[in-house]
Amino acid sequence: MTQSNPRNFEVLVTAHEAYPRLEAAFMEAEREVVAGFRIFDPWTKLRSDAARTIGDTWFDLIVQTLNRGVDIRIILTDFDPVVRMQEHRYAWQCLRAFIAAAEASSHPENLNARVAMHPARVGLLPRTLLWPRSFKEVGAQLRKVEADVGAHLDGTPYLRDLAVKRGDTLSPRIFPPPPLVPVTHHQKLAVFDAQTLYIGGLDVNDRRYDTPRHDRKGLDTWHDVQVVVSGEVASEARQHLLDMEDVFSGKTARHTNALLRTMSSKRKIALPFMSPVPVVSEIADAHLAAIKKAEQFIYFETQFFRDETIARALALRATQQPGLSLVMMLPAAPEDIAFTDDWGPDAAYGEHMQVKCIDLIHNSFADRTFIGSPAQPRPSSSKGRDAHFGAPLIYLHAKVSIFDDSLGIVSSANLNGRSMNWDTEAGITTQSKAEVAQLKRRCFEHWLGRGADDAFYQPQTACDTWAARAAQNAQLAPEKRDGFVLPYKIGPARADAQILPGVPSEMT
Fold first, then answer.
1. Above 60 in pLDDT, residue 150?
2. 197: closest CA among 141, 159, 235, 246?
3. CA-to-CA distance for 497 and 380, rounded, in angstroms?
4. Taking the model in full, what pTM does it have?
5. Mean pLDDT, the chain, integer
6. How many domains does the chain have?
7. What is the crossing angle of helices 282-293 and 308-320, to 10°?
8. Is the predicted pLDDT of residue 401 greater than 80, yes or no?
9. Which residue among 51, 160, 240, 367 is the one 20 to 30 A from 422 at the CA level?
10. Does residue 344 sit in the same domain as residue 471?
11. Distance (Å, whole) CA 167 – CA 161
12. Which domain holds residue 67?
């Protein structure tokens, strides 16, 4: 929807910009904060000078906000205790910190905080087939709990239901097969006084803090984009957060004009299925509609490019519109493959889907597409996938889409089947040319530097100039490169790719 009146619209690149703005929004709130995050750790350091006059961490800011009489309602994501036990424990640790902050305040009644696990479950048939692996995984998680001094099952409440005590030892329950949760709430948004919305791809903890220089270890880099926007979309986002559980229970989602969502619900009969029932696909629909209308230029920043429907739509539009070009920024490797040694078939399957999608667009766009990956301007001795062209990679987590200088989308959703169809996601779209121009400028300047000339920005020349800059950087020593952009290497992804027959592509 085109905005007839100017509204507040701020693009925030990396947590260095986003966290202080979020802190300010909390300090400025007069009545209420309504929020939903995959991760929000109250022990995260405060970053702005103004917030640090209150205390050192978000715990202190939460206490101060409650003391001012502001209501805080927050939904934190819970995770499957079988395959994501660490995240499950972490979610409950964050909840306990919120509760402790409320108890330390003068208005504990003003906090409404909870962890929410998506109600969808893998059906009995696939759970039975996965039974041996699940049984083994539950046993491994129980041993971790027992080995962790001071840990107990109260910190992992869903894991408690999967265990039996035999003497002093916890053992996995033999029957029934453990329930498996295929879906999560992946959104990251907060609404202040029903007027101001903070939304995008960034959660809140110290792991996700990074600066525009990305001068940390590759493992500690985290590139993300948030926006702050006022107007109708803020009230729609607030209502979305309040209505979530009703939609998951089967009620029809309210219509929105400005907010984009992905939502799914549990199946009434899940017996043979691994998947939930998609009920809202506004983010996917917005992308597909924009692709069909694109005439000159498309730009993506995304953590994953694994959605075959979007890839095929892009390929079709490339054949229909010979003047259309595409620039996409991806991380050089997924986080688990780049920074851990214990990644398994699920990560390899994700690489298979990404290679498949990239091949689709390369075959149609040919030299009208450039796919890049960022790396730091300093050398690395690593020969693994945590390095890219001899430099530590910059881990790209942003979710930005721009079409023809006329439409922009910023959300929590990656370009993969999970974000487009299963997980709970939220984002905004803008057709204001001024807002799209701001979004484009902030994203492009970040990767290219402020010295990039108009050729990098013009739809007719952007693809070629980005490709030329990346190719030039690839030939230079890391410290002599201009900006962060380098070519994406599909070879390592193709080498690590693996098909998993029978597994839905949305699992990646």
1. no
2. 235
3. 25
4. 0.95
5. 94
6. 2
7. 10
8. yes
9. 160
10. yes
11. 17
12. 31-185
